Amino acid sequence: MSRFAPMPEPPYYAVIFTAQRTAGDSGYGAMADKMMELAEEQPGYIGVETTRDADGLGITVSYWADEEALIAWKKVSEHLLAQKLGKFRWYSHYTLRVAKVERGYEGPEGR
Amino acid sequence: MSRFAPMPEPPYYAVIFTAQRTAGDSGYGAMADKMMELAEEQPGYIGVETTRDADGLGITVSYWADEEALIAWKKVSEHLLAQKLGKFRWYSHYTLRVAKVERGYEGPEGR
Hints:
homodimer, alpha+beta, Alpha-Beta Plaits
């Protein structure tokens, strides 16, 4: 499975979630898998890109067709639950930014 | 040094760069350090968040005050050079998306 999200014609939305994990799993892995499954079922879901280094700093960017899609996703109850638990258990710090993608490129070119 | 970028009042711009590294360093580390130094000197630079997992998938998000700032950065010659070399040597695949940040939050709250 590709770890890159599709590149549809802009505009569409990106949710950029950067987070520092605390030590230990504490149910995080299972929650993250479940969240990914739920996201894929949502209307307007385009894809996700996620990575985390050995120090626990992760960046997850999910892509959504329009603002309606990301608002709907935010409302999904298990997502809300995960957000709530995350605040107290899984992350020492996080930032979340919602951004409208205006253009995109991919490569490498010329191969 | 914090690995989180500042959270200014939106709107501002995000450049989301997702890339799969090839094996070996091939001068990548030195180039990446130099790029980071150059970015910090640019007008309109807000900050950067970057992480990469053991499989070589990295996500780097740089934040810029306005479109002018990101166009200027794109033109910096060493950046262009790095892009060019990157296409042929450092990455097996990459995507770059330019997005306008509309809102942002950070946490954890309630601690």
